[in-house]
């Protein structure tokens, strides 16, 4: 084994037990630290391969404080803590640990967690290296290509995006005195892999609409790779200049500067990446920027050597190629939040990593699963979807793993389970948070060993599957409350994708509404061309507890009820007005479950309690009646309605 492990634990007995256990398992324990200060010294001296980290330690600083340094030093760490309250779990999760074990735990749990951590760390590093080599090759190909400066820079922007997520890239050159020239190009991200390109003069045209701004002449550029997030960005934009314009005109909140040194035959250039996210950039971006500097120098050098066609002065240049958004045809939206999701999908789809999709009900989790499968090498094989919440506890195992004939009373025939059906393809386990604890152990086994055991079967059966799971539950909370196994959580949460709620991306509402109008006009044979400004304003003002599913249902109804060929009137669910004594804060703190519960009750009321049938609540909510039934049970909604 021979991995060097540092134990950071202030309880002597526990630390000693850990040391003995790890040594027995052939790990090398390079030290036991009782405080963050001691740990810092030992890390410096021994450079451990992994750190086991208690959260509350001797002294003021906690394990969570040490985590930031470990991350920077690229040392994986696992928390061991007796404290499993949700707040601590969330703070710990934000530091991206390789595992979290709640004390007391079994020795074996720790050994398994260590192996998982090692696996993730090595794979993470390896795939990072692979991706970076690929990036360098892509940059070299662009350099060798024949396209003009603008096209090349656009291609560079596109290949850099997965590594440095930005909303605006500004590229330009400097004169001998270090002042900016007027050859600057701006690439404003307007969709996944789609950019609006404008020149220095183009920017002037935009700014004329905002007379308070002027494009500064001869502005100086930064001389090293560095970043400015939130507070430091505020000090950068305190002075007039390009950065201030980017902040005030385009809503940018962070900057990463990447200057390129001058050469004998070419000028000094600069790349400035801006993001709307105030915490967008990290030290990792600085290191990456320094590593790719030579490749960018070559790319820009070849541009100054090639004859560059004149670029229209104040014209907005579109993409030279058709928008590659089409790979996500089934997911409508161009908001930055959704674009970030596209980014994650395209990163994870080609590999076999398990994915955990989280987000409130109706945010499109199933759509994301569809896209991951469709973009993966498994696309020619089945994508099997299982709604775990809809399966009664006594049937779930036979549904997932299958059974042999005669395995139990009623098993009159052999049944192939969903895992076997998904062989060579993908299995989508929706509502994973609803799987009973007993079944969770078996799922863990599938994830670890890629084999299943049919009920009544004599030997395990190997399966080659990719697992995508989804939930609208807060799994950390479920773990903390003992309803979800931590080891399964870590196995599933290898690549989390969190979907934004519709209120977080209201700018997508017009696109979504038009998309649904198109679908339901075709379905119903009505010729509806769009929605009036007034009706759209109503949609934009609503808070969408049911997310896109609710928007789809409301649009469908509006299409049916429209008097002319424009939707003029939108009828939204009547919401209970807040009680005067209710504080605004309390209203805001409603949980997803309360929202979901209220929404289902509203729909049930509208349907006079009918669940099934064409005008039943299940049809309106676009979920099977059995799913609605189990949701109602879960949310404590009594079945005191007529069916
Ligand atoms: N971005 C999108 N573009 C177009 N349609 C969407 C989008 N996202 C969701 N939908 C539609 O909204 C509905 C709900 O989507 P989906 O079933 O994927 O949500 P979900 O998050 O899996 O919900 P639940 O947690 O309730 O299972 C579906 O009818 C889907 O067609």
| CATH class assignment of the largest domain | Alpha Beta
* Distinct ligands, ions and cofactors found in the model: adenosine-5'-triphosphate
> Looking at CATH, which topology of the largest domain would you report?
Beta-Lactamase
- In angstroms, what is the radius of gyration? 28 Å
**Strand order across the biggest sheet?**
9-10-11-6-7-8-12
CATH H level, superfamily name of the largest domain: GAF domain
Shape: globular
**Strand residue percentage:** 15-25%
Strand-helix topology:
Elements (H helix, E strand, L loop, with lengths): L3 E5 L3 H13 L3 E6 L2 H11 L3 E5 L8 H10 L4 E5 L4 H8 L5 E4 L4 H38 L4 H12 L7 E7 L10 E7 L2 E6 H9 L17 E3 L1 H7 L5 H9 L3 E7 L7 E8 L7 H23 L10 E2 L18 H13 L6 E4 L6 H10 L8 E5 L8 H6 E2 L11 E2 L1 H4 L4 E5 L6 H13 L1 E2 L8 E2 L3 E6 L3 H6 L5 H7 L2 E4 L10 H16 L5 E2 L1 H9 L5 H15 L4 E2 L16 H5 L3 H15 L10 H5 L3 H10 L9
Parallel strand pairs: 1-2, 1-3, 3-4, 4-5, 13-20, 13-21, 14-17, 17-20, 22-23
Antiparallel strand pairs: 6-7, 6-11, 7-8, 8-12, 9-10, 10-11, 15-16, 18-19
Helix pairs in contact: 5-6, 5-10, 15-17, 18-20
Describe this structure in words.
The chain contains 24 helices and 23 strands. With 643 residues, it is α/β, with parallel strands linked by helices. It has a seven-stranded antiparallel beta sheet with strand order 9-10-11-6-7-8-12, with helices on both faces. Strands 2-1-3-4-5 form a five-stranded parallel beta sheet, with helices on both faces. Strands 14-17-20-13-21 form a five-stranded parallel beta sheet. A hairpin with a 2-residue loop joins strand 7 (185-191) and strand 8 (194-199). The longest helix is centred in the N-terminal third of the chain and has 38 residues, at 107-144. Adenosine-5'-triphosphate is lined by residues 331-333, 359, 361-367, 430, 472, 512, 515, 548-549, 552, 622.
